[in-house]
Amino acid sequence: MELAGTGGPEVLVPATWPVPRPAPGQLLVRVGGCGVCGHDALARRGALAARAGAVLGHEIAGRVVATGFGVEDGWLGRRVALVQRIPCGVCADCSDGLTTLCRQGPGFYGEDLPGGYAEYVVASPLNAVPLPEGIDEATGAILSCAVGTGLRALRSAGVGTGDIVVVTGAGGGVGVHTVQLAHHFGCRVVAVTGSPDKADELERLGADRVAVRPDARALRAAVGEVGGRRGADAVIEITGGPTFATSVRALAPRGRLVLVGNTEPAPLPVEPGLMILKELRMHGSAHADRGDLAEVIDLVLAGAVTPVPAHRWSLAEASSAHSALDARTVTGRAVLVP
Ligand SMILES: [Zn+2]
Ligand SMILES: [Zn+2]
């Protein structure tokens, strides 16, 4: 499926491409599943760099069916989950282990190189992690973005047992897993969602309180109810603009806000006085890296987090999956299966 232009779900149209040939050091992966991310919807609407002819999809798992020159034995025939960016492996950032910052490699699926709304993608041992028996490819597809993003954000917030964590966009693909992970790490979790019908599911996944479209006062009250009289220790901000101002007001002194999502790209209002007097800290967290993805797989096998792949659509139904995403009727992550 490719973009015929930018706009509504109907711009996703079938297309035929030659099967890519893996370059030296690369893997050819037959796609077994590809997650449908909010990022894809932004790209489809034209809010990101993707243009007509782009093949979206950066949440990919499948089987290695060919390898380029120089790839070690052992990859061919393996089932793998992929990180959404292929790094170069040699630049200064890669050398420091900061592969999410690499801009020298093949890049990000769906933007720099054709993505997973397709039967085949190229990959690399630098962005692939073997998928164990017991995790199917539709589930494996969502592990890096929908689960690993939250893991990385929680780690960067430095949360631990007893901390109070607010998760916004909690009913979405990243949110449902961030709630589970925070619960697993022993945090008390306040889940913020725009959809009242997702509340029961969020409580089942480990949320101690669910706040539906709270204003600043209601969110502080929810945080107070789980013991956070001074506010929340951390906010994992997955929606960005729509909830940001409310989230900041829910933070305790020295609270951390980690920006993960940007659903309505626009500048955010920062109140310097609040930041200064409460010594708040705010930083971004990008996608998972290969180490995060490997840890996610271990956490899934240990039962600490249960991936929530929502409805599965066939690849040809990509526009239906996007319509459902636009209508916010998807709990968890929609997956396209070829
Ligand atoms: Zn994604
Ligand atoms: Zn690099």
In short:
With 338 residues, the protein is an alpha/beta fold. It has helices at 38-45, 92-95, 137-141, 143-157, 173-184, 199-205, 216-225, 241-250, 272-277, 290-301, 318-326, and strands at residues 2-3, 12-13, 27-36, 59-67, 79-82, 85-86, 107-108, 120-123, 128-130, 164-167, 188-193, 209-212, 232-237, 251-259, 281-284, 309-314, 333-337.
Structure description:
29% of the residues lie in helices and 24% in strands. With 338 residues, the protein is of the alpha/beta class. The chain folds into 2 domains: 2-142 and 307-337, Quinone Oxidoreductase, Chain A, domain 1 (Alpha-Beta Complex), CATH 3.90.180; 149-284, Medium-chain alcohol dehydrogenases, catalytic domain (Quinone Oxidoreductase, Chain A, domain 1, Alpha-Beta Complex). Strand 10, helix 5 and strand 11 (188-193) form a beta-alpha-beta unit. Helix 4 packs across helix 5 and helix 4 (143-157) packs across helix 10 (290-301). The longest helix is centred in the middle third of the chain and has 15 residues, at 143-157. The termini are close together. Bound molecules: zinc ion (2 copies). One zinc ion binds at residues 37, 39, 58-59, 145.
